[in-house]
Amino acid sequence: MDLIQLTHGGSRPKAPKPENVELHFSEKAVLELERLVTHYPDKKSAMLPALWIAQREYGGYLPADALAEVALRLERSYAEVEGVATFYSMYHPHHAVGKHLIEVCTCLSCYVCGAYRIADYLKEKLRVDWMGTTEDGLFTLEEVECLDACDRAPVLQIGDQYYGPVTERDVDALIDKLRTAAEPTTIKLADEIVQAQLHKSDQERIS
Ligand code: FES
After folding, report:
1. pLDDT under 50 in the chain at which residues?
2. Count of structural domains within the chain
3. If you measure from the C-alpha of residue 156 to the centroid of ligand 1, how many angstroms do you get, rounded to a whole number?
4. What does the pLDDT read at residue 14?
5. Cβ–Cβ contacts within 10 Å for residue 145, how many?
6. pTM (predicted TM-score)
7. Residues in contact with ligand 1 (CB, 6 Å cut-off)
8. Are strands 100-105 and 156-158 parallel, antiparallel or unpaired?
9. Looking at the domain assignment, is residue 13 inside a domain?
10. Same domain as 82, residue 135
């Protein structure tokens, strides 16, 4: 009997010892976190935005060092931070992602409208499988649940943008455009979420 694979494989990295954690947050990131923490009753409550800051600072994903740094800065355990980061699918704990993460929705509406045809086209074009990253480090392909844009099925999410309904021709145009994009969409998305969170927190404080 085959075991059902519930994860994408790969072993869990060992948690770095607190005394071995090297801090990588930039000065800007430290200030952002300090500002965010003041909007919550305790440091722990700022964990979600802290993880977004870390995802931006560590190049679009959350290696063990990033989780350890968040744990250290929020005075929580590594296990607790890892538990949160692995629960939400928009965080990318442990595995690096490319400059652009292409998320393909394969839920019902997208499935019916050809999501797997588009996924197969992308796999062949980029020569990667699900969770694979192209050799040049530009693209990672991921299968995701409903993106809540079913009226535009089949839908792709890349960074902060939804694209749909997409055809193979749209995929070609998108990939060409992304190849020349200067800014990694994975990092841009993380930064936008951090900035939105800071703005929202400031607004709440004013009102
Ligand atoms: S099923 Fe794809 S966006 Fe809802």
Report:
1. 1, 4-6
2. 2
3. 9
4. 85
5. 11
6. 0.86
7. 105, 107-110, 146-150, 153, 155
8. antiparallel
9. no
10. no
